Structures
1.
Amino acid sequence: MARSTEIGQPLAALGVLSAAPYIARRTAIRGSWMQYPEVRQGDVLVRFVVGVQKSGPFFSQLQMEHSEHQDIEMVKTNRTNRRWGPFFTTVRWLQIAATVHPYRNAAYAAKLDDDCFINVPELTVHLQLLRDRPMVYYGVFYYAQWDKSGYSVAAAGYSMRVKRRQGACNCSKPYPFAAA
């Protein structure tokens, strides 16, 4: 939900979902789109959100990386695998973004994946244009569905008409999902 931004309040809090071993991806982001003035000046907050288990092999490495960059949110989750880890990590990030300072002061909270490139100036313009709308669900949309085993990536597509024709889903109809 968008809130009016005041001077000193961030426009957006972006949670970049990342897996613990993906240091190269985080490094590439720090050296590219995190260099935009909107990020460097704090108008757009960027944090890498990594699901962790305290006994996991990468925990101490992530702590060292965070102490150097101050941009990692380690979230406790009992699932860090590829199928369910992103879901639990996203839910936890949205909880943090809604309740923890400074993220809760942002007009927008968002999540994206660590293989995305964000044109931060363009995103900032779009969000400022949408600022007065009470609810915003923003992104590149495609249609996904759930089956008995969970989210069906293979059944995802950009057209609901195609998804309906395929009839491959046995638990939910295709629904719009903001990708990445």
2.
Amino acid sequence: MKILSLFDGISCGRVALERAGIKVDKYYASEIDKRPIEISIKNYPDIIQLGDVTKITKEMVGEIDLIMGGSPCQSFSNAGNRKGFDGKSGLFWEFVRLVNELKPKYFLLENVKMKQEWQDVISDALGVKPIEINSSLVSGQNRKRLFWTNIPNIKQPEDKGILLTDILEQEVDEKYYLNESQIKTINRNFGSKGKTINLDDGLIEKITYPSRINKKPLNIKSPTLVAAMGMGGGNVPVIIKNGRIRKFTEVECERLQTLPDNYTSGISSTQRYKAIGNGWTVDVIAHILKNLNLPHSANHNQSAS
């Protein structure tokens, strides 16, 4: 297949195609962030990098079998500026432009849960309704996302029953442990928004420094990984083990996105966390793409829900 991946990031789509057993003849990638491009090239030197999505034309790529991408979510997300299509998320229209110009056999668009009115605009533009899939079914991470696609017969993945404890590294470097100053900063800036996972007694806790901790039993899944994983943030999980507090390692974050261990190695830790948080949960995408192996005809007006 000839693939065009828009907003490609670290090429999670390429990993998913491989995992789904789909032969890739050419993989064109549109990405402008230098560090994710480095990761993509490290893992897949044959990827053809096209750069800015607004500059891509039919003459550059020819016939395409599948266009896929996760257009920017910043102005759709509850954590973003909520400007909708007037913000960075308006780049969604480049996805629509290229689907209309290139007329691929299949398309797949991913984005966050959003206001119904924005969701309806996307559905009208692509001619399909989205299906919501939570990464928790295939990983140790809660990550609800919407997928618009004309790949037929998409159903929910089977629940693999993976918990956070299944992916954690047993021994981690001292640099991942937080000192008292860092803990105070987390609580001063984010208060009860910070999510702490206590592995000693199987509870998720909200830190209120230094000792007031509210507990309630939960199945242990990581909160949604975000681009700020390496820099701190209101939804960045922190792990308590043996009375000490630490952040996730880069490898643990890769595992939560079902990426291979050390897939993002070669760039700084901060950039690794950012790239992983901006990426896809690979096994969710592979689950969707496996239906490409079934005999059928593409139909842009087919509902995916």
